[in-house]
Amino acid sequence: MPPGKFVPGKMKILIVDDSQVNLRLLDKILSNVGYNVIQATNGADAVRAAKDAHPDLIILDIAMPGIDGIQAACILRNDAETKNIPIIFASSLIKRRRKRRTNTFLGSSFLPKPYNKTALLREIRGHLAHSRPHPAG
């Protein structure tokens, strides 16, 4: 969970990355524009946090030890509670073929690392504007 204040009624974004530097950066960017931020450092914690908090969106690193981002997304997509939560994959290792295949399978989008704040916020707003309903927490 984030170190910052959680504000009821604001949209929740779950950020998942095994890098504390990336978590702090995303937390700062998203908190500063008014989102509630929930953090997880691996795929297993991401699945638990998504089920517990029902975020409005998930930003999910692909390359993590243990359950990676792709595996976590598959688990989330196969669970009735979490299947409609939009996912944005983040990675510095995105390969064009893997990106296309995963995007088709999981209905997700991708952001390259390092993050571009403008592109990040545009992608988030686009997903939140078009997201399907899911259980609220």
Summarize the structure in short.
The protein is an alpha/beta fold and 137 residues long. It has five helices and five strands, in the order βαβαβαβαβα.
Give a structural overview:
By secondary structure, the chain is an alpha/beta fold. Helices cover about 40% and strands about 20% of the residues. The chain has one domain: Rossmann fold (3-Layer(aba) Sandwich), CATH 3.40.50.2300. It has helices at about 20-30, 45-55, 70-75, 95-105, 115-130, and strands at about 10-15, 35-40, 55-60, 85-90, 110.
Question: How does the SSE layout of this entry go?
Answer:
Layout: E1 12-16, H1 20-32, E2 36-40, H2 43-53, E3 57-61, H3 69-77, E4 87-91, H4 96-106, E5 109-112, H5 117-130
Parallel strand pairs: 1-2, 1-3, 3-4, 4-5
Helix/sheet category: alpha/beta
- CATH class call: Alpha Beta
What does the average pLDDT come to?
A: 84
Number of domains: 1
Overall morphology: globular
Number of strands: 5
User: How can the largest sheet be summarized?
Assistant: 5 strands, parallel
Query: Please, how many helices?
Result: 5
CATH architecture label: 3-Layer(aba) Sandwich
Could you tell me the radius of gyration in angstroms? 13 Å
Assess the beta-strand content as a share of residues.
Answer: 15-25%
Identify the notable features of this structure and list them briefly.
disordered C terminus, five-stranded parallel sheet, 137 residues, alpha/beta, 5 strands, Rossmann fold, globular
